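Render SDR family oxidoreductase in 3D.
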Amino acid sequence: MSSSPPGKLRGWILPARPWPLRASARSARSRPILGSPEKRERIVREVIERYGRLDALVNNAAVGRVGRLTDLDAEGVCEVMTTNFVAVADLTRLALPHVRRTQGDIVMVASALAWFPAPPLSLYSATRASVHGLVAALRRQETRDVRVHEILPGFVATEWLAYASGWRPTDARPHAATAIGTAPSRVAAMVERC
């Protein structure tokens, strides 16, 4: 699940692995649909109804707000916490019994900011550290039938940081908002190796 590159991940992963993919959002411009428990339940239910099984869950959801914590409003704090941690934990909880049945994989795409927090991304860094803690706990809990993976990329060359900063790319300069960093294809390759 992601608010930025899943459409790109689809193109890179599916040709190599002929698995159906259910993505919750396809671009940085779309609002993540993971905010409510009902929507998260629907995502898992629809996968089971359509395919009869769930072999893997890739949690790649993230939103961010650049600024000091005191500069953020309550709505922004709730959005970041809900999307980046609450939804990830709840979606994992919902998917886990199905993934356990298929002896599948849970892949958590967090961030190097879990280890090296950045002051202008303090809340985002905290949510990534929370995901890291969840991974550590799940690895101890799910010792038999589920493989739990964690990917901790640095900045990824997408529009995410620009959107988190509150500005948008223009049609005249579509790549101006792309962060310098790891190519999304490298992150997709890491997911595929899991």
